[in-house]
Amino acid sequence: MENTKIVKRRRLRREYYYFLLAFFISLFLATCIFFGKWLYDNYRTKNLHEEIMGTSEIEEVTPDNEELVNPPEEEESDYWYYIKLPMINVNFQELQAKNSDTVAWIKVEGTLINYPVVQTTDNKYYLTHAFDKSRNSAGWVFSDYRNQWENKNKNKNTIIYGHGRLDKTVFGSLKNVLTDSWQSNKDNFVVKISTPTENTLWQVFSVYTVEPENYYLQNHFASNEAYQSFIDTIVGRSNYAFGTTVSTEDKILTLSTCTSDNLGRVVLHAKLIKSSSR
Questions:
Q1: Which pLDDT value is given to residue 265?
Q2: CATH of the domain at 81
Q3: Are 87 and 63 in contact (CB under 8 A)?
Q4: Phi, psi dihedrals of residue 158, rounded to the nearest 5°
Q5: pLDDT score of 43
Q6: Which bin fits 181, alpha (ψ -120 to 50), beta or left (φ > 0)?
Q7: What backbone phi and psi angles, to 5 degrees, belong to 173?
Q8: What is the mean pLDDT of the chain?
Q9: What is the distance between the alpha carbons of residues 137 and 164, in angstroms, rounded to a whole number?
């Protein structure tokens, strides 16, 4: 009887060990598959971006028909420094032939962000699809579906998203704006955007991290008071004092990506300071 109990215990122990072994082997294989897919998606994203950069016509321009937006009265304002910078001009013909969802091109100084921007009818599709619309966990740089690119006057807050990839693709390098090296060079404090109808220059006035929320992603405001309250909040959140004046007369650009642990968001806000119709 005693021997039978010992045999049963040994069998149970052996089965338990086999179960643990099978569990850890399965976990290891699943991790390898996940990591392998992550690396492959990174590889495809880099190749696609390099292909786009190699075939796209992007030039820096200083056009004659520049329109200064909401210039300040103070002569010492950095605004007057930034409006002297050139804008980017992009040929969208080939880009839109490849993907008709293309609405803009964005370049963020001091980062690796230099991408065409796409937009569709929701904010989910391009979280899992690349510029060529293939399935890809890296997604792409995309505009909030509520933005109206053909009528900028209806956009108080133009919002652009991208995954914060560890290999710095898409919006992975937006985290640069939180570093001392980025913040110590004021030439970084501009964002350049080109669309099929105009080129624009934006001055950065706030950068920060925040827990996932919808507040900073508002693009409609019931009144000027509500908009001013929004401006005061996002200016107050900045972890760097840009000293830039922002009012309800300004149009705002918001860039948003996830933090490395995906528990928060890295956010950049800029205001429109110069535009040029095409």
A1: 97
A2: 2.40.260.10
A3: yes
A4: -85, 125
A5: 79
A6: alpha
A7: -95, 5
A8: 90
A9: 11
Q: Tell me the whole-structure pTM to 2 decimals.
A: 0.88
Residue 185 makes CB contacts below 8 A (sequence gap 6+) with 110
Integer Cα distance of 227 and 247 in angstroms: 9
Cα Rg of the chain, angstroms: 24
Structural domain count of the chain = 1
Active site annotation includes 258? yes
Three state DSSP letters for 122-188: CCCHHHCECCCCCECCCCCCEECCCCCCCCHHHCCEEEEECCECCCCCECHHHHHHHCHHHHCCHHH
> Is residue 188 in a domain?
yes
Q: What is the pLDDT of residues 49-82, one digit of tens each?
A: 999 999 999 999 988 888 999 999 888 899 999 9
28 lies in some domain = no
What are the tens digits of pLDDT across the range 104-154? 999 999 999 999 999 999 999 999 999 999 999 999 999 999 999 987 677
Long-range contacts of 40-44 (CB under 8 A, 24+ apart): 41/136, 41/137, 41/138, 42/138, 42/165, 42/167, 42/169, 44/130, 44/134, 44/136, 44/138
Q: Which helix (H) or strand (E) holds 209?
A: strand 198-210
Q: Which of 258, 270, 272, 273 is catalytic?
A: 258
In a domain, 2, yes or no: no
Query: Which residues constitute the domain of residue 88?
Result: 39-277
Alpha-carbon gap, residue 181 to 18, rounded angstroms: 53
Quick check: 272 and 278 in contact, CB under 8 A?
no
Closest CA to 79 of 202, 165, 248: 202
Distance of CA 76 to the CA centre of its chain: 31
